[in-house]
């Protein structure tokens, strides 16, 4: 029987010797490689935090001592030690979430997978425990060195240092990387700590010396080690940063040395005030393919061969991100004022090729979306045109800067939002479903949603040509949609994708949803209902031709993969009312809920965003509400008779 299979709660660790804990760590790594290679997921970060997680659960008592993981993608080991070892459905509907999730276990506290928020959570939880008489409990926050590039972390540290009468342990999991290598002054600072020969020599020497003197000397060492660490750390200019914030610092400690980790965490536990434990870890530890991957050390992988680490069963289709990456390089060749900005996501957002071609024209600001956007406003003021590439979900964090720093100052900044709409397996906080509703309220903003690769290329060029307002290009995760040519492009840029002689239903397909709209139109025509399909291309502002087409039809249906409340459909309805167009409007989109992890197809089906479901609903609505249906031009428009209605109702099931 393996040691791992004997662990159902963290307290099962108490009976294991140090040698057995080492064996457990090896079993966990083998388990991760075997299982995550089948499902995909965050492999590298979890391989790097095995010993640290074991030590945390050995020393502290979760869930009595709440454990808060910053971002949460490194919580797989935590799940395994808290009774969740069925990884067969990882990140799939009905299986384990890829991040902490309260519905899975009381051991999970914070579900949000947005970085740099853990210390604020820890600050609040620890204050609450102290004020409500539960001062004996500890709060443990795990934050990566990458998250230290986020300003929110430092806001939290500033406030944590204001109240030392509580049990709060902050573990800095320092592997020198966020998604990719951590950048900036903080990264250089921590790197000097990791490579300081003086500290490493003295640290190893002191451990060895006291270790040889027996239990009594080791107990004494534990008592003085805090001061020793402080002295040695200051000697290599490390702890000064934290001591100036009046927070005790312990470390650095080898994040793969279980005895040292347990000893250090026990010291932190006994301190009685906020403590920072600095653990040096290796992302991808114990798996050569990950360690040899210079790009991101297998931060997130699809299905892979567990022996070689090579992808298996992946799609060879071109990704949306790749189309953007290539076109931005082409634009950069033509315009020297184009500048790229990313928030620690150079490769995932497609800016890497641009950085390789123009290394002095890309700024990676770390996990600092607010700074990225405000800095872009300054670059625009200086005569440049910044292109800020960011995941749609992370755009939420910089809304104030978009509004007050970019839009208010009429700055020409282009935002390229990757992973927009439904993203699937990463779960609630990674879906990019809020951007359209959120950003369209920004004055003067212009938002484009391409339906295929050609539209992405042309809309990107149109976006960077705007110098007096923010522009947005957003596209989904995964492979680019098939090319969908237009029958006609109207003078204001709206593409007509399908039309019938009878103008019954106007279908407005937003970006890739235009493909579904065309499918719906085909199904409606088979039922004798005329449909026109348009792709606005630029969904904000609403173009005049949309108003004219809506006035000529009997029903307008908007289809988008953002939230329905406050989405583009809502804007279309409002614009039509202002234009005194009384055509009925149905807004189809994602419900205003936090959507659990599942495939994109499953989530769209749940939301009713399939061609069959939409067509069926339209036919039922036409029949049930007696919306007039126009006949071909040689016949006069007429209302459906009751006989017609019954006949069509019977045919709906055949759509």
List descriptors:
25 helices, about 650 residues, Rossmann fold, 18 strands, isoprene biosynthesis, disordered C terminus, 3 domains, six-stranded mixed sheet, seven-stranded mixed sheet, globular, about 40% helix, alpha/beta
Give a structural overview.
Helix content is 40%, strand content 14%. With 655 residues, the chain is α/β, with parallel strands linked by helices. The protein has 3 domains: 4-196 and 238-289, Thiamin diphosphate (ThDP)-binding fold, Pyr/PP domains (Rossmann fold, 3-Layer(aba) Sandwich); 320-474, Thiamin diphosphate (ThDP)-binding fold, Pyr/PP domains (Rossmann fold, 3-Layer(aba) Sandwich); 496-652, Rossmann fold (3-Layer(aba) Sandwich), CATH 3.40.50. The strands form 3 sheets. The protein has a 7-stranded mixed sheet with strand order 7-6-8-9-11-10-16, with helices on both faces. The protein has a 6-stranded mixed sheet with strand order 12-13-15-14-17-18, with helices on both faces. A 5-stranded parallel sheet has the order 1-2-3-5-4, sandwiched between helices. The longest helix has 22 residues, at 18-39. The chain is globular and about 80 Å long. The two termini are 55 Å apart.
